[in-house]
Amino acid sequence: MSAIVPTAARADVEPAPGVDLGEIFRDSKVGEVLEGLDRDLVGLLPVKQRTREIAAFLLVSKARERQGLATGAPPLHMCFTGNPGTGKTTVARRMAEILHRLGYVRKGHLVDVTRDDLVGQYIGHTAPRTKDVLKRAMGGVLFIDEAYYLYRPENERDYGQEAIEILLQAMENQRDDLVVILAGYKDRMDTFFRSNPGMSSRVAHHIDFPDFTDAELDAIARLMLERMQYRFAPAAAAAMREYILQRRGQPNFANARSIRNALDRARLRQANRLFEEGGMATREALETIAESDVRASRVFAGLADAAPR
């Protein structure tokens, strides 16, 4: 009996033409999204790398499909873990764009929800709420922040488990039309997955978002101001660096979110200062955050109290 020779190895059969991965990449315009991540987000290098790896995996899956190779529906559900303000929602929006441009979701929109959007307060309330959210998310990405709050075993009358069961069914049966991204603190998400193995088995991609360094938070502050057409006076820039050092050690620190809140308050103080000064306000004055606008923060009050009298 003659040996069976694979088709691709037989000399009398022309091999199938290759697939130009570069062409697929260019046609999808995924590169624009990845470039936007590099341009708009400071730091997060491990996150950006994992995002590129997922994009490459999905692109190659498309190439395999064109060559008639077995692919199946690639696993797309994800988990983003990290502290508040580390860019999870922002990256989720970009991921929705990538999935849409590669043809894995029809619309590419993001529906951002928490437990309160899914779980009802009484019997018969949870199922319609959860199904309504799923309906809005179909064709795109459902982002569930602090997803571990769905599971509250200490409360036997909690309806979170009902929402989880409906989500599990949708993640399995509608996986060709819906991608779910669960997000939250890493330790709590680990506990959530241990308690809900069905959910764990459906989530293929785990991305951990590191805290920003002080230098990265400083760069984020300057980038945020630039986008709002403000700038720091030199002394204000130095004060902001001190603010970052002090704020990190205080309760409820939320990385970039805390920086954005600090800048919003500094802009309010600047506006109040200019109003009280009265007279003509030059363009330079209108766009400049002064040192006093930053140091008026309560973050510095503790330093003043601790200073020698």
Which key features would you list for this structure?
55% helix; disordered C terminus; globular; alpha/beta; 309 residues; five-stranded parallel sheet; two-stranded parallel ribbon; 15 helices
Characterize this entry briefly.
The chain is built from 15 helices and 7 strands.
Describe the structure.
The chain is an alpha/beta fold and 309 residues long. Helices cover 55% and strands 9% of the residues. The protein is built from 15 helices and seven strands. The longest helix is centred in the C-terminal third of the chain and has 23 residues, at 255-277. The chain is globular. Residues 1-11 and 304-309 have low confidence and may be disordered.
Number of strands: 7
Low-pLDDT sequence parts: 1-11, 304-309
- Give average pLDDT, whole number: 88
Radius of gyration: 25 Å
DSSP helix fraction? 40-55%
Query: Oligomeric state of the chains?
Result: single chain
Terminal-residue CA separation: 99 Å
Query: What form results from the Cα inertia axes?
Result: globular
Give the spatial strand order of the biggest sheet.
2-3-4-1-5
Order of helices and strands: HHHEHEHHEHEHHEHEHHHEHH
Total of helices: 15
- Beta-strand percentage? 5-15%
Structural class: alpha/beta
Major β-sheet profile = 5 strands, parallel
Which SSEs are present, and which pair or pack?
Elements: H1 21-28, H2 30-40, H3 45-66, E1 78-82, H4 88-101, E2 110-113, H5 115-118, H6 126-137, E3 141-144, H7 160-173, E4 179-184, H8 186-195, H9 197-202, E5 205-209, H10 214-227, E6 231-232, H11 234-248, H12 255-277, H13 283-287, E7 288-289, H14 291-295, H15 301-306
